[in-house]
Amino acid sequence: MSEATHRELGLTDGEFELICEKMGREPNGVELAMFSLLWSEHCAYKHSRKLLKNLPTEGPRVVMGPGENAGAVDIGNGYSVAFKVESHNHPSAVEPFQGAATGVGGILRDVIALGARPIAILDSLRFGEPDTERTHYLVDGVVRGIGHYGNSMGIPTVGGEIYFEPPYEQNPLVNAMCVGLARTDEMVRAAAAGAGNKVVLFGSLTGRDGIGGASVLASAELDEGDDAKRPTVQIGDPFEESKLLECCQELLAEDLLVSLQDLGAAGLTSSAGEMASAGGTGIDIDIGLVPLREADMEPFEIMVSESQERMLAVVEPDKVDQVLALCTKWQTASSVIGEVTDSGTFRILKHGETVGEIRVDDLVDGCPLYDLDPQEPAEWTYANRETIEADASPSDIALSLLASPSIASKRWAFDQYDSIVGSRTVHRAGTADAAVLNIPESNRAIAISIDGNGRRVACDPFQGTVEATLECAANLAVVGAEPLGVTNCLNFGNPEKPGVAWQLGRAVDGLAAACNALEAPVVGGNVSLYNETPQGPIYPTPVVGMVGELPDPAHVAGEGWRGGDAIALVGPFDPSLAGSELEKQRGQLGKGLPEGEIAPVKAAIELVREAVRSGAIRTATDVSDGGITTALAELAIGSGVGCEADLHPVMARRSDNPEDALFGEGPGGFVLAGEKAELEKLGGRGVDFELIGEVKGNEVIVKAGDARVEILVEEAAAAFDSLEDRIESDQAGLTH
Amino acid sequence: MKWGVLQFPGSCDERDALNACQIAGGGVNESRLVWHEETDLSGLEGIVVPGGFSYGDYLRAGAIARFSPAMTAVAEFAAAGGPVLGICNGFQVLCESGLLPGALLTNERTRFICRQGELVVGEADSPFLAGLEAGQRISIPFKHQSGRFFAPPDLLEEIEAKNQVAFRYAPGQNPNGSLNDIAGVTNEAGNVLGLMPHPEHAVEAFGGSTDGLALFRGPAPAAGAAA
Amino acid sequence: MIQARVLIRPKEGILDAQGKAVEGALPALGFEGIEHVRVGRIVELQAASADRLEELCEKLLANPLIEDFEIETVSE
Amino acid sequence: MIQARVLIRPKEGILDAQGKAVEGALPALGFEGIEHVRVGRIVELQAASADRLEELCEKLLANPLIEDFEIETVSE
Ligand SMILES: Nc1ncnc2c1ncn2[C@@H]1O[C@H](COP(=O)(O)OP(=O)(O)O)[C@@H](O)[C@H]1O
Ligand SMILES: [Mg+2]
Fold first, then answer.
1. What is the pTM of this model?
2. Which domain covers residue D26, as residue numbers?
3. Which protein residues touch ligand 1 with a CB less than 6 Å away?
4. Has residue A331 been placed in a domain?
5. Cα R_g (chain C), whole angstroms
6. Count of C-beta atoms within a 10 Å radius of residue A292
7. Under 8 Å between Cβ of B142 and B197
8. If pLDDT is split at 50, 70 and 90, which confidence band does D53 have?
9. C-alpha span between C59 and A323 (Å, rounded)
10. B chain contacts of residue D25, beta-carbon cutoff 8 Å
């Protein structure tokens, strides 16, 4: 191996030396390929693992925490829900349809690997501003890709969010979350156990998908052809995964497996390596036994291939025949490719002959973990651009906010997702702040929310991440749910840059603080670093996914209010334009968000949750992007009835700037509507409470001091629904 | 009533359909899934060919599934007058196999759609419509990518003339460009009915509508009489 | 061995949604003077003999109600 | 006026999920001896000139990352 090779594979000189030292020799090609992938950021978490140790991961309801394929929490009656969010940013930037589709496929397999049946998908997407051909292309492909995979699998996509901000233009974010349901006692772990047990690979054939960077290892002979033809794009096949899901469920129901693991990044190398590591065993894999899509694959290609829709199982020898027979029933390829050993070594054979041999510990846990070198940037490092006229009236501003791509209705996207298959969906994206799924198995329902406003995190990584977490909890409260557990995906730029390192550290601290306060343990997640292009890094974007439970899905507050309802503002809402949508439109973004205490927000969340659970409140939403005016307008649009509200109490109590009151953002605000007498019962309970208006007419009228927003509900609706036309114009959608 | 719900590799809505059969039967659990390789349908009083993506919908929706051994048995079952309900992908399979007239093309806007919508009950004489009246409106989710009903002019005329239209999309709600707003049709005898919208997703109050139950309850008396 | 190529097209007179979508996307991308876009499928395969290809097309690859097909073969 | 026919196929080595599913289904349908099934797209159109067809394929009709395309034209 030339020294240049390890660098081309992404290993530092120091890491390469460490590998040689641990092995007592230089690695051969197969071994080097395996090290380069398992010692990559993606698999080894070498720049984030130390930080993640600060997250709270324990709680009475936790069944599986970080370290497994997905986290899981107990939801009673012998059932658990397993969930995880994962990114597929880079593949989606290259090929949006397949990138997003395989992102969904990958996160589904993590949940399937626990023995759970996936029951919901959520997606969290970030793109550049929707005015460019590139953004149109990415949005079209990503939305179709997510729909294609989830719809074909028969798993409902019930929620999500889409933000449009310039820093994501070249580097979009595609995060997908999956929630699965399992009988707690039937869940499986990934750890290999029992020397002599067989290793079975099943699912798709192994091809050259996703080999990418490692292809520098290809032998000269293979290099003679056109190297550009060597496939690296992974193609998703939801039909194969659908068979795989049913097959796994049946294998587990028949109790035929010792352990189960999906094949994700780094393919066989990581799944077999991690299985052996978790079980404290060794493992032998004979690549001559791996069913291939192309005949002439080299050993290293087979070991690192990222072909989709494959699973690995450890099976007791006398159950192997039954396992293979079930795979045949489900028309999915399967073969015994190796054996669990007690050697502590990962051995790669080719037709019985050893072609690589690595200590499992060296491969899986040997990668050095790095300390970050954080340094707070002195000033705002992202571009600003003005898109709203300086003299826009409050009514113009209100309409401009409703039409803002990040706020405007995403229904055109979510309508492309099957949100109802599975017969559990009580609420999906667009009908309530959190998705609600019925779980008759344990006599309750669960609620799921996913959130992360990168712009606010860019302004203040700690506070922005606290807010994202609180917003998830607020979304759950509105449907009467309390948090059970959290998953997250940390999408950041290059952590070797001090400014990004600082963002990452502060964001993780914020996540830890909020989860501690909410008593919501983090049971899993994913980290995606190096999201940058020559134009700079993305906004730091921690995406928080939260799962909660509620006793009765019949008591869920929705977004439709009725004429005559009184309107209340509940919670310690302290609006400010800092980091807001309006400040963005004015091109005035800068560092810093107002600091807030978590405890009073938590109290408001609890009050709203109880009110909704009691059934007394039927309309509730939390105040988020675009401030109170936007929240009121959205409720008006949803039900076709206007309102008249006066924010005087907000002004008097907090800031005197009418714009802060009308359009300011911040955590801790809920708008509730309903019978005045019922609402008033929420006063005097230690949580800020004000009646601010009434539901009536066909206009949204919001006053703050001298300033007045006055827009027709129809106008508001037209602004809110304007995004689809802006985005779809030039896409033919022939990708499938 | 004992329903058999077909299950192909790639089916998605088969459990939902089974759930609907059970709810329609007052919670009695006598219906079952029928694996696509099964050929013995004896004891079953009705068949549901459910929605989903049989064989990934690759090539053409329903094109591969219609060749399964179970479909041969379903054709015999239908020929003997047994009630057969095809939903979405099941409708496509029944059209592909010739048990129902017409074909289903990619939605006019080429995208998958999923939303609640309204259907108007047609004039067709079918056991599945026993609990519904012609002209009645029901609320049922629309959910498909290839749901544009098509038949060449003479066939379309025949379908209309023989009153084989079971459902039309309510005025202004045609989501896919179907000819004559057709959402569902029956065979000439009326015992085979296919529709694109999803009655099995409208059977529980929490989902917003229970209008779909009527289709699963419709054939029950007939089946009871036969038994 | 026979190498066959089957071209499957939407029948004349049937609205071709994909073709229409392509036409709709052209102006925004700056393409002018392109019309009558039709999108179909191509299936390529190797068969031991050409005997049953017609039947394969009628039964499986195409739906005669909505699609026309054309078989091109090359012996190898 | 030019009549163009664009054949778009999955690149060599790239998973062809449709081809795989069709091939897998054939034996059960009683078709033996058929292999290497690949499913692609055919786009037919009329253009004022052939100048920008290549670009059209790259931008809209095909995805060059995972698909190869071939343009056949006939002047009319
Ligand atoms: N941001 C995070 N917060 C909590 N846990 C995390 C985070 N990122 C990764 N993890 C955990 O680290 C483990 C490894 O993650 P990953 O490599 O994504 O798993 P897999 O290979 O199964 O996809 C998982 O158990 C995951 O839940
Ligand atoms: Mg995994």
1. 0.95
2. 2-75
3. A 43, 52, 55, 66-69, 84, 86, 110, 264, 488, 490, 522, 524-527
4. no
5. 16
6. 17
7. yes
8. very high
9. 34
10. 55, 64, 67
